[in-house]
Structure formats: C-alpha cells, structure tokens
Please model this.
Amino acid sequence: MIIVTGATGKLGRRIVERLLDRVPAHRVGVSVRDPRKAQDLTDRSVRVRQGSFDDPASLVHSFEGAEQLLLVSLDRTGEECVTGHRTAIEAAEKAGVGRILYTSQTGAAHDSRFQACRDHARTEDLLRATGLPWTALRNGFYAASALQFLEPARHTGDIALPADGPVAWTGHDDLAEATAAILADESRFDGPTPPLTGPAALDFDAVAEIAAQVTGRSFTRTVVAADDFREQALAHGVPAPVADLILSIFAAARNSEFAAVDPTLADLIGREPATFRTLLAQAWAE
Model:
C-alpha cells in the first residue's frame, strides 16, 4: 500500500488524485489530521486514517501496511518542523514502512539562507540515518509563491519586492504528477532526486516582462530595501518571523540557490512542465 500524508493539502491532494490515475484505490491510503475532509476519498475506496504529527501513536496506526510512505513536508519552520518530521519518520520505522519518500526542495542545504531549506536538509539527514530505502523529492520552488508575491502588483502594476535572483518556479500540478509516477515505480530514485523544476529560471525583472505580455499592461520592477520591506510587512500585520522568512527567500534567490533547471521533471511527466507564463495566465484569468 502507498500512504500519503497531508492528503487534504494543496500538494498532497493533487498527488493522491494523480496516483489514483495510476494504481487501484485499494492500494492507496492517506493519513490526515481530519478524516472528515477526506470523505470523498473514503467514498472512492481509499483507506483514510487519522494521523497527527503531534500524536506519534496515531501516525503508527495510519502508516500500518505501507510499502511506501510519502511524507509531505509540514507547513512549519525551524525546530518545530524538524521535530514533526522526526516524529513521522520514527512512526514509519515502528510501522514497518518499506520506503519513505519526502517532499524536499531544490536548494536543500545546511548552509542555505532560507530556513525551510535548512529544515529539509536536516530531515534528509534523519531519513539517511534510518537505514531504510528513501527518496527526497527535490521540488522546484512553488510557482504559487511567486504568484502570491505578485498579487499586489496585479492591481498596482509595480512589482515592489526585495532584490532577488533567478528561480525555477514550478507548478504544483506537474510536481504532483511526477510524484505519482515515482510512487508507482518504486525503485526509480534512491536518496535525493535531481532538481524537479520548471523549464526556466526567472528573476522578477523577467517576471515583470511576462506579466506585461500576458496582460497587455505595463509593469515596473521596484527593488525595495530589505529593512523597508520588513517594516512595510509588519505595518500590514505580517508577523515578524514570517517577514523574516520571506526575506530569506530573496536572500537565497540572490545566492542562486533555486536557479538550477533540470530535465528530470519533464522526463517523469512525459512533457515539458508548465512555463511560468502559463501558470501566471491561468491564475490571473480566475
């Protein structure tokens, strides 16, 4: 059986849907905090069990019978994130899971300027230490983040953000399809995968040009000093830790930590991944 955590989340739900296109429903299980949110999966004969990263016993139960476990990374940072992942990995060992797959990120490294990438590196260390077969899916930076950064500019025409660098923005749907392909072919990767990225690395100067092409409007790119950006974010009610986390994304981008572009994602899904232009056009058409 293949068990997926976070199956009601933005990425996890997509992965389950793509997986059900490839394997029978009785071979798929999900571990979710609130099973009521996965009732439709129960109705489709997917095994749904309650599992919380704050309740190790519930995870052992929800991971029972897993030949493969996909651990979707938590939406937490720092020690809280790594502790949750450690709890899940230990539960997987107790449950006798055959292989653990984990949604890591391109740029995962202990010296990354981005906290989440440091968390991914520490989680990969935990997986390595188990002695179990494991795969770290080095996902490209989610294009959804860039779209969120662009939301004010959608109305103002000014992309006012800190100095950045090229990022291989990657779509959730393509990553979900690739993950399902890997899960359905159990021995494809051992350890970290190559970067699973979109077809091009773009900075926000390039993004401004794409936005203009998509909309037929003019967009400017204004570089905001880090301190000024932080003050503006705080003034809009953004908690200080979140503002600092956002700034660290731009610092890592300037350090080219997300600039790698690799053909592996295209090979897995059998076509070119969606371009940022396509993803932007889809999002702004809604």
